[in-house]
């Protein structure tokens, strides 16, 4: 309960930015509800006058009845205008508030550490940003005004009932505690299923996103049936929780309506006796019975919206869980980035672990002078990519220091550290835009001439000009309309355009053919000229010219030196090298 109230308070922080429209919408809703509450009394006036005329054997007072009908028409017009105004204003407020919420989630995602994305499914994160916000938006637009209207309608109906006849009013009031008890029991039971439903929806989105990304591999290995069966299991969970949550919450309305019908029957019978005994007029009894329905209708509205409200409550908690995640923290007294970075890098007693009790890297030491090419080799899981993650401050070291030109990277802003690096990854990433804009991503203010110049240096200009529309050709969503090698060349052009001080090449040639490998190597050599560079490579033939080769195993540098020096040592590196060539030669 405390978490729900806290979520509502935080939700109000978004709505209050548009409080003028919010309170105007409420004012319109209140006005319409009060007018609606007066309808039974006004509608009962002609009935009472007609009954009096008949009882007194007088002519029907049509002038009076016409006047009342005109009043009813005017009240209906004002009531509907107010309802329209409240809905229009509230929709505007909700949409703008949710726009702000989406903006904050987007900003938050950009400030979260890489570790968050390593431990959370992308589909679930996407579900929180889209489905959960949509669920909250729909609930606010559908439910907020109805709840306010219901509360005011109930108070108005109760007031008017006591004004007509207190004894009958106390009898009618019995439906309120009965409805509250029924609602509380059902909500407590159904809320757990609504939470499970939102979590299952996140799992389903994750599964679909994962399978769509690897659809070609799925088809290749004929895993359609297996994946379909797994999808059925995941989908069945969502269906099961959705059914249970909807079924249980759906019991609320008929049970609440049942109490209303019982009260209605008792009031009608007792009211009939009171009319006969002339304790109340026939018109007032008619009005009172209408107020019983007006008291029941708001409770029915709330019970109808119960599923929407509970789903939105679960969604709100999931949204704020993301907003409450710890962000990348910066020191207050960070060092300014030097004007002329040379690119010297040193690891001094660096230790790191993803989990406190499982150290991965311990007391790692090495120095790189400006302009050196450093190759990092070793078996899978040796810590090569982790070392790069530490260098880029995707993770912070748990011990020791990484220094660039003698300055500890922890004493620098993360964005300053990362601005020094250019990266070419094994999995080349291109986004849905033109080739020109994909290359320009490395330097957003680059001119078209600079982009073309970088493409020429990366040996990709010729390929681009042979494509439809050349530099204006759009890369599709999965970048499937260009080959893997062409993607690599485009990312090299992007890195070259950014003019980084330090370059990182992570398995950049591991998935291409020999001809493209030579082309990519030539492009990389141009990029690496005059820059400190770190190269992670499985093909050891590509790093023979490296100034320094670091051989890693289980998070430790077990050998280091040049290619010839390491072969002469007749150690781990030589075994790796010989394993790639049958006779030990290239």
User: In whole angstroms, how far apart are the ends?
Assistant: 69 Å
Helix percent band: 55-70%
Q: What is the total tally of β strands?
A: 10
Contiguous low-pLDDT stretches (5 residues minimum) are 582-586
Q: Which fold name corresponds to the CATH topology of the largest domain?
A: ABC transporter transmembrane region fold
By CATH's scheme, which homologous superfamily of the largest domain applies? ABC transporter type 1, transmembrane domain
Strand percentage lies at: 5-15%
Structure summarized in a few sentences:
With 586 residues, the chain is an alpha/beta fold. The protein has helices at residues 2-15, 19-55, 62-111, 114-119, 122-129, 131-164, 166-172, 175-213, 215-220, 224-250, 252-276, 282-304, 306-323, 384-391, 414-419, 435-440, 448-457, 461-466, 484-498, 514-528, 563-569, 572-580, and strands at residues 345-352, 361-368, 373-377, 399-404, 407-408, 421-424, 502-506, 532-536, 548-553, 556-561.
Write a structural description.
There is one protein chain. The chain is α/β, with parallel strands linked by helices. It has 2 domains: 2-323, ABC transporter type 1, transmembrane domain (ABC transporter transmembrane region fold, Up-down Bundle), CATH 1.20.1560.10; 341-420 and 529-579, 3-Layer(aba) Sandwich (Rossmann fold), CATH 3.40.50. It is built from 22 helices and 10 strands. The chain has helices spanning 2-15, 19-55, 62-111, 114-119, 122-129, 131-164, 166-172, 175-213, 215-220, 224-250, 252-276, 282-304, 306-323, 384-391, 414-419, 435-440, 448-457, 461-466, 484-498, 514-528, 563-569, 572-580, and strands spanning 345-352, 361-368, 373-377, 399-404, 407-408, 421-424, 502-506, 532-536, 548-553, 556-561. A 6-stranded mixed sheet has the order 6-7-8-3-9-10, sandwiched between helices. A 4-stranded antiparallel sheet has the order 2-1-4-5, with no helix packed on it. The chain is elongated, with a radius of gyration of 36 Å.
């Amino acid at each position: 309960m405390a978490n729900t109230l806290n979520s509502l308070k935080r939700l109000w922080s978004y709505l209050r930015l548009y409080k003028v429209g919010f309170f105007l919408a409420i004012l319109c809703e209140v006005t319409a509800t009060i007018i609606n509450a007066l309808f039974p009394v006004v509608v009962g006036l002609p009935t009472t006058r007609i009954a009096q005329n008949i009882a007194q054997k007088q002519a029907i007072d049509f002038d009076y009845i016409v006047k009342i009908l005109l009043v009813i028409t005017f009240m209906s017009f004002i009531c509907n205008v107010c309802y329209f105004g409240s809905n229009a204003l509230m929709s505007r407020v909700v949409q703008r508030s949710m726009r702000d919420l989406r903006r904050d989630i987007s900003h938050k995602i950009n400030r979260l550490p890489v570790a968050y994305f390593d431990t959370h499914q992308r589909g679930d994160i996407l579900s929180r940003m889209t489905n959960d916000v949509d669920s909250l938006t729909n609930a606010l637009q559908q439910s907020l005004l109805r709840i306010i209207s219901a509360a005011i309608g109930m108070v108005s109906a109760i007031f008017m009932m006591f004004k007509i006849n207190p004894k009958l009013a106390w009898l009618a009031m019995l439906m309120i505690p009965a409805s509250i008890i029924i609602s509380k029991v059902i909500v407590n039971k159904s809320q757990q299923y609504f939470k499970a439903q939102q979590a299952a929806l996140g799992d389903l989105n994750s599964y679909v996103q994962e399978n769509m990304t690897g659809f070609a591999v799925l088809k290749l290995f004929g895993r359609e049936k297996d994946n379909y069966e797994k999808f059925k299991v995941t989908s069945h969970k969502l269906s099961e929780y959705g059914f249970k949550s909807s079924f249980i919450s759906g019991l609320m309305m008929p049970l609440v309506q049942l109490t209303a019908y019982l009260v209605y029957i008792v009031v009608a019978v007792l009211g009939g006796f009171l009319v006969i005994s002339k304790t109340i007029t026939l018109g007032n009894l008619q009005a009172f019975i209408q107020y019983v329905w007006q008291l029941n209708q708001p409770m029915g509205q709330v019970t109808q919206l119960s599923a929407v409200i509970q789903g939105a409550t679960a969604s709100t908690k999931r949204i704020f869980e993301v907003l409450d995640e710890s962000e990348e923290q910066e020191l207050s007294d960070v060092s300014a980035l030097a004007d002329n970075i040379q690119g010297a890098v040193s690891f001094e007693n660096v230790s790191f672990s993803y989990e406190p009790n499982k150290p991965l890297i311990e007391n790692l030491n090495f120095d790189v002078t400006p302009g050196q090419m450093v190759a990092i080799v070793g078996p899978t899981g040796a810590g090569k990519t982790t070392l790069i993650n530490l260098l880029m401050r995707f993770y912070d070291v748990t011990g020791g220091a990484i220094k660039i030109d003698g300055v500890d990277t922890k004493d620098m802003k993360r964005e300053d550290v990362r601005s020094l690096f250019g990266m070419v990854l094994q999995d080349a990433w291109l986004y849905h835009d033109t080739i020109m804009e994909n290359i320009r991503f490395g330097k957003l203010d680059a001119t078209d001439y600079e982009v073309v110049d970088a493409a020429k240096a990366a040996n990709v200009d010729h390929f681009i000009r042979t494509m439809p529309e050349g530099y204006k050709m759009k890369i599709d969503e999965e970048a499937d309309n260009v080959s893997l090698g062409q993607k690599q060349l485009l990312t090299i052009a992007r890195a070259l355009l950014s003019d980084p001080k330090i370059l990182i090449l992570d398995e950049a040639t591991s998935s291409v053919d020999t001809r493209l490998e030579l082309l990519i190597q030539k492009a990389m050599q141009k990029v690496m000229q005059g820059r400190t560079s770190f190269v992670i490579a499985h093909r050891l033939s590509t790093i023979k010219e490296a100034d320094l080769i670091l051989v890693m195993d289980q998070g430790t540098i077990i050998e280091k030196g040049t290619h010839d020096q390491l072969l002469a040592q007749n150690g781990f590196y030589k075994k790796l090298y010989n394993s790639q060539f049958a006779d030990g030669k290239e």
